[in-house]
Amino acid sequence: MKKTSVLVGLLSAVLLFASCKKNKSEDLTLNINGLEDLGSAYVYEGWIIVDGEAITTGTFTVDASGSMSTNTFSVNKKNLEDASSFVLTIEPANDSDPAPSAVHILAGDFSDSEASLSVSHASAIGTDFTAATGTYMLATPTDGTMDDETSGVWFIDPATGTAGLNLPTLPAGWAYEGWAVIDGTPVSTGTFTATNVADNDAPYSGSTAGPAFPGEDFLMNAPSGLTFPTDLSGRTIVISVEPSPDNSANPFLLKPLVHELPSPAGSGVAYNMNNNASATNPTGTASR
Predict the structure, then answer these.
(1) Which listed residue, of 62, 208, 263, 269, carries a Cα 20 to 30 Å from 110's Cα?
(2) What is d(CA 44, CA 46) in angstroms, rounded to the nearest whole number?
(3) Residue 210 in 3-state DSSP?
(4) Which residues are CB-neighbours of 97 under 8 A, at least 6 positions away?
(5) What's the pTM value of the predicted model, to 2 decimals?
(6) Cis amide linkage into residue 264, ω under 30° from 0
(7) Which mean pLDDT values do the consecutive 10-residue runs of the chain (288 residues) have?
(8) Which of 67, 47, 34 is nearest to 286 (CA)?
(9) CA of residue 183 relative to chain centroid, distance
(10) Domains present along the chain, CATH in parentheses
């Protein structure tokens, strides 16, 4: 009887130890550079992947200087030990869905105690955009005349009449967007996912149909503080990568292609964009 009591006691102790280990928490530390303020409607959320299941590690925000609201998160110890990778997503601030959104911005596989995070990981965007190239021209085909030809930008190679952008295919949750920065104000040329069809909007163009490529004529309905038609000489042209749904009327932090036009600029001339990906891709680590 005494021997049985001892065995029962030992078994209880083992079970108690296992239960304590299962419920014990451990810190996950994020060290990420290059994120931006998402505004009040969205937050960043971390996830560890355990046996194919995404388990949240918590949410955080980033201020205007790029500082995270917190970088240490208490996570179940066993789950953290068993995690194969870490994924960072963008989520609605008041999110009732317990699953990750489609907007995966960073990810990395754990090697011992650390995961190096990048946009190029297969569980993030899947590319680093460093091979992206772009050519564009100035023209205003939607006004039906040859007036104000430096008031429109089209991502077309004028030498061949074909798509001027060479961009990787984006996963669900992301879209490209073109921009002209006019007197310090970024004005969208429209969002798109394919470079050989028209983009999704033409709020400033004229009444004539435009080419079947991304681009925009800045002829009417100018945003407050601007006047259309304009002259894009000396302005900056940008291709950004945007979360979908979009969190802001301004370009997102990922800006793989950028080019500043000369002054004066010419219409119908091929302008080649500079690859800016390495300067705007966020990077970081997740440590357990």
Answers:
(1) 62
(2) 7
(3) coil
(4) none
(5) 0.91
(6) yes
(7) 47 46 87 97 98 98 96 98 98 93 98 98 98 98 94 98 98 98 98 97 96 98 98 98 93 98 98 98 98
(8) 47
(9) 25
(10) 2-126+283-287 (no CATH), 133-280 (2.60.40)
